[in-house]
Amino acid sequence: MIFTSIDFETANAKRHSPCAVGIVVANEHEIIDEYYTLINPLMEFSSFNIEVHGITSRDVENQPTFAEIWPTINEYLTDHLVIAHNASFDMSVIRNTLDYFNMPYPSMDYLCTANISRRVWPELMNHKLNTVAVHHGITFEHHHALEDARVAAKIFQQAVDQHGGLLDSLFAHCKMEKGRIFEHGYKTPRMKRSKQPRRINFSRM
Questions:
Q1: Where are the beta strands (DSSP E) in the chain?
Q2: At the N or C end, where does the chain have fewer CB atoms within 10 A?
Q3: Of 63, 49, 66, nearest in space to 9 by CA
Q4: What is the pLDDT of residues 51-75, one digit of tens each?
Q5: In 3-state terms, the chain is what percent helix, strand and coil (to 5)?
Q6: Is the pTM here over 0.85, yes or no?
């Protein structure tokens, strides 16, 4: 099993403002490849986002734009299983930024490690990236795109390992289906609800 983990940081609240991307390629046991770059978002940074990740407009003024690095990112994503923690955010960054540059979507399947964590480790107080990382004894620099992508990869490895190293077994346990991005749209991952026993109202009998 080979998969790609991805994480973006953004310059402001707009989903088409990525200012950093981290990518990790891994299998069940080890990290195989990594890629990281700052990105010039061609727009202003908000003070809130700067406080979160520490990246400023000066840091990216000589960095490539998303359109310039997309061919490299696309090679990591297309026809691969992609994961991200809170994947709805990272996948929306991809879609919105490609829309902004009028570029076609890749073809890829994806999963969310936050949702997986909720099913595999339901006892945790929450399933934020840093909380799940602490649970597994992982230390990292939070909100650095490469470090976040690396932690998401390790979380996914742990989840698969708890199910005998079998992805199908993890899917069955989590009652989930992969999401997908394709040329003309996308489909979000599905997490089926566990069936609750039917309640009988004896007062009406």
A1: 3-10, 18-26, 31-38, 81-84, 108-112, 176-177, 179-182, 185-187, 190-191
A2: C
A3: 49
A4: 999 999 999 999 999 999 999 999 9
A5: 40, 25, 40
A6: yes
